[in-house]
Amino acid sequence: MTHPSHEHDLGFAQDLPRMVGRRRLIALMGGLGLASATGVPASALECVSLPWETAGPYPADGSNAKRGQTVNALIEDGVIRHDLRPSFGNLTPVADGVPLELELTLQDAAGCSPLSGHAIYVWHCDVAGKYSLYDTTDANYLRGVGLADADGKVRFTTIVPGCYDGRWPHIHFEVFQSVEAAVSGEASVLTAQIALPGETAATVYAGDSRYPDGARNLGRITLASDNVFADNSAEQLQQQTLAMTGDIATGYRGTVTIPVDFKAERSASRPPRSGGWFFGRKPPRPPSDN
């Protein structure tokens, strides 16, 4: 399966100058207006700030290492992109799975106003519950950075993530003040996770053979027992659960609004860096207490 190259898949050296100059002029993503998993229109949800969550062991954001080598996809050419399924840079594998058109709306929780010009880095596992660059070392698919348009919207094409044993199916993300902040190693303004709706996930795992053990693993856990989502309030869970419509044959569309509280506690942010400089980048500043 091949994927056409896109202007926004050329890497930071070519993308960044153009994107910074055009960020308020180009609407990179469009609106979907989908219903939430509970049947309440996403636009009707209150603006509930999302809690900080762990980035987990597979962020590839320069905060950890594998076999002594720092893993950092954020400095690689091609990480600013729309389609997350192909690998980028010098890697070639492509992720297979049920297509998912993902729309994320970034908001300032104070007033629920759009975070125009902010960047978001997203990553998630493949159909088998494996993460690129860690479990699958010859691939860097299912990772990418997008820039919010004037309405705070960012859109990606990806696949429905698989479900591995011990975790509810989810998507990781980090929000940054700008693309420059994401690539320069600054601390995120929010690190958190998006939960998939259980009914849709169960349908995909039971109906598509490309998701080995997905149905079995999902059956062993609930959102209430997940070690990341379990301590969140009902309102927070509703806010951070992806609203999905579609089917296995044609693919799914999903939306979620991500309100950022810039004064929130950040105790569950990135794991400690191993020290030193990474590929010419200074490690991120520790989160501010202000």
TrEMBL record:
Gene3D superfamilies: Aromatic compound dioxygenase. Transmembrane segments: none annotated. GO terms for molecular function: ferric iron binding; oxidoreductase activity, acting on single donors with incorporation of molecular oxygen, incorporation of two atoms of oxygen. Residues 97-167 form the Intradiol ring-cleavage dioxygenases domain. Pfam families: Dioxygenase_C. InterPro entries: Intradiol_dOase_C, Intradiol_dOase_core, TAT_signal. Keywords: Dioxygenase, Oxidoreductase. SUPFAM superfamilies: Aromatic compound dioxygenase. It comes from the Bacteria. Residues 263-290 are annotated as: Disordered. PANTHER family: INTRADIOL RING-CLEAVAGE DIOXYGENASES DOMAIN-CONTAINING PROTEIN-RELATED, PTHR34315. This is Protocatechuate 3,4-dioxygenase beta subunit.
